Amino acid sequence: MRIDTGNKIEEKELIQRLKRKDPSAQRTLYEAYARYLVAVCARYIPDDDRVKDVLQDSFLQIFRKIGEFQYRGEGSLLAWMRRIVVNNSLKCLRKKSFLPLFESFDMVDSDEDPDPGVSGVPVPDLLQMIRRLPDGYRKVFNLYVFEEMSHKEIAALLGIKENSSCSQYSRARAMLAKEIADYKKEKQL
Amino acid sequence: MNDWKKELRKRFSEASMPEPEGLWEGIEEELSGSRKKVFPFWWPLIGVAAAAVAAIVWLPGRPQSSRSIDPVAVVEKAAATSAPVPEESSPAVTPDEWIPSSIPANPHPAALPATVAAIQDSADKLDERVPSESDSPDKVPVPSESAETDHPKPEKTSPQAEKYPVFPFDHPEPAPTSVLHGLQLSARTSGSGYNSNSTTRYGFGTPDTRSYSSPAYSTGLPYAALANTENETTVSQRIPVRIGLTLSLQIGTRWSIESGILRSFRDIDTRITSNYMTTYESRRTRYWGIPLSLQYMITKPERPLSLYVSAGTIWEKADRERVVSSAQIGTYLQQKEQTDNHPDAFLWSAVGSLGLQYSPVRRWPVHIFAEPGLNWIVKEWKDGKFISSSEPVQFTFSAGLRFSIMP
After folding, report:
1. Residues of A in contact with B23 (CB under 8 A)
2. Nearest chain A CA: its distance from B25 CA (Å)
């Protein structure tokens, strides 16, 4: 993958320079991916100050542990960095929440996954709607939709029951659907 | 059904948000701060450990007179000991005749050279009384009348004893080996030979050029007892045990450096046998030590039970020593117990071990460790001088609590 920084630097070459702790390579990587990673982090953490803290820690971790990264083809570096940001975001949310995630005993119909009506809504507005979801719902929704994890994997990662993951995702989707409906009604879409 | 999720992922893969203000500056500051570091963060820990070692090693010595000495008993045994004397080698004369008054009653091991010299003088005088081969048995010297009044002669005497006087320090049978009581000389009888496999560690007596196997000894003359001053020494050391508290600093995922304070328990039992004297010594020494070691976690660090290897060094200073010793010279038995609360003893050892660490509560920096290993005494300092340890390499066992900290 060519990183479009104006100089057409190859990804592999950039990784080699990063492993040598080249300051200019670090700056290049930051400028290429910072905005994207901000969006990823912002989907998990609604507070902008905490987003900044998590991103700072994430980039430092990326630069310090780049020696352990093994290049596996185009996009592997971005996927690795996104994983680091997601993990740090979840850690931050874990520290913040003093109460266990809400656990619902509702029966969940896993076969149905209706569209909340995302098409036609701009991404920045969708991002803000996701950020307004409760912490637990937001985490499960992001992990299920964007990280493509199963409810079993989510349950293991967050330390909750699988049924709880299902129900929280359903509730998150329902809340998102309501927000989108209100948004469309307001914009007369 | 899942098309909306796929569409959402695709739209968000190109999403971006403006960076928070000052984000890169904060990252750069952290990176340049770590680049500018000249000394690793673990140097202060090493410095503290080195300062503590220096303080212990170069502490002003305590006056020797502060030692407390409690002599237990001094026992005087008569010539007729508990061990029966076989008829063949019944002494022709009693021991009192062979022990001149110039020889102290209960000689201290430190006074042995003088004691030996006194006996040698006595033996030289007896040389004049040795009968030549042409002499008849009738001309064997007869003890003086004064000796007979105090100690009666045995009823039977062997033909050999009639011809030649038997050295009173000889015993016809090997001595019993009880630790503190009933000690007898383990001197060899005439003709039994000497254990040539002696491992000389400590010497007593004055070297003498006359050989053990000389005919003079076989006749039982007393000076032959001085002929050989080699000793047979048996040293038994229990595995040193250390218990204490340590502080471990993580310097990587699996590497850490550790220091702390350990209490060591060293027990040594020594038996020295010569043809003149047998001594037993039981030494119990307690040390305070400061270790410094590097550890590598073999198993994954996040597991509650983990295995690691450790290599390092330890400086130890003795703070208490208890010695129980006993010795018999001639027919006199001495037993002594001594406690030194300020012994002048230091140890510097190298240690290598395989350890087991248990973390009872996850995310707590407190662990319980147990480390069996090998200990090599590099230097041992005792009573103002360096000495060579008889057993420099030993198995050792350490256990205790470890507190780990992350930089």
Report:
1. 34, 52, 55-56, 59
2. 10
Chain A residue numbers touching B5 (CB-CB < 8 A): 113, 145
- Please answer whether residues A137 and A168 qualify as being in contact, where contact means their C-beta atoms are separated by less than 8 angstroms: yes
Domains annotated on chain A, with CATH = 2-96 (1.10.1740.10), 123-187 (1.10.10.10)
Rounded alpha-carbon distances, angstroms, from residue B290 to A153, B48, B195, B216: 48, 11, 43, 57
- A188 Rama class: left (phi>0) / alpha (psi -120 to 50) / beta: left
Residue A65 has pLDDT above 90, yes or no: yes
Q: What is the mean pLDDT of chain B?
A: 65
ipTM of the complex: 0.85
User: Is pLDDT of B24 > 90?
Assistant: yes
User: B232 CB contacts (<8 Å, ≥6 apart)?
Assistant: B195, B197, B198, B199, B272, B273, B274
The domain ranges of chain B are: 47-67+235-405, 78-230
Q: Which among A123-137, B42-56, B106-120, B298-312 has the top mean pLDDT?
A: A123-137
- The residue to which tokens 């103002």 are assigned: B384
Distance from CA of B300 to the nearest CA of A (A): 17
Mean pLDDT of B136-157: 46
